[in-house]
Amino acid sequence: MLKQSALRRIAVTTIALVIFGILSFFPVKLEPEFANDYTLSSMSKGAIYLIDPYEYVARSEVVMKNTDLLSQAREIIETLTIQGKKSHYLPNGFQAVLPIQTTLLSIDLQDSVLKLNFDEKFLKIPKDYEEKAIECLIYSLTELPNVKGILLYVNGELLTTLPNSKIKLPALLTRDYGINKIYDLTKMQNAIKTTTYYISKYQNYSYYVPVTEIRNDEKEKVEIIIERLKSSPINQTNLMSYLNANAELLDYELLENELSLSFNRYLLDDFEHEQILEEVAYSIALSLRDTMDVSVVHFLINDNEIKKMFV
Predict the structure, then answer these.
(1) Phi first, then psi: what are they for 237, rounded to 5°?
(2) Is 200 within 8 Å of 238 (Cβ atoms)?
(3) Which of 217, 230, 267, 298 is buried most deeply by CB count within 10 Å?
(4) Is residue 57 a part of any domain in this protein?
(5) For 207-232, how does the pLDDT look when each residue is reduced to its tens digit (9 = 90+)?
(6) Alpha carbon of 311 to those of 102, 141, 283, 286: distances in Å?
């Protein structure tokens, strides 16, 4: 009996060593979770605007497998569709806005304008979300290169009025439409429209929320944005800004699509190494891109450039 038991143990050990040797020469390749959908060489990230947990239209990111523009636009629309093919890629707490099974019948790009033709399910957006859905579409699709605006059709008819809220729409939808709009007007004279990007956080995820404010102001748009980011953004909200209240915009210069901003040293997070917080740089640069249509922002301290951002 003892001899048989010993032989069995030797046999088991031998088999285990053989299996280990085979695995060593032919290792099992472990694929990432997304391997069924994407390959590492084809993945890219793009900005998308979704409804955040606080009911704002917020800037997030989506993984895209396509590289041509029209295919990327289709991917964005799939992500914006409730229970769409890419709904499982949404950040935790965020939601899509287009009704279930909404179908994009056709898409075309001419002269930097995307023409979108949806089926009738598009008209089933709840009243309180209609304008948010328009903002999500405009801001998501105009993040794509060479897309400046969209034309929105339903079954071949240009959509000029939202069916439930009765809000009138311009024929050409651009970022000038605004997002998360706040109106504070006492008169039409000196009405200034600016879009400022604040920071929000849900659980451990930080992201940007643009807010378009239309109010009476005699300051320049650059000055308004910096002042908004220095002060408490909006009372009783979760929106934040990390720009130091002591930061002062000393001068600025606009040359074509590039804007140079000269600040005092309180713009910096690290005086010794002259570093600016990424959250501060992005909040300012994104705000100026949307408000003043610039694509490059230079940050200067004492006439020395400390950061250059392409947006």
Answers:
(1) -130, 170
(2) yes
(3) 267
(4) yes
(5) 999 999 999 988 999 999 999 999 86
(6) 31, 15, 11, 7
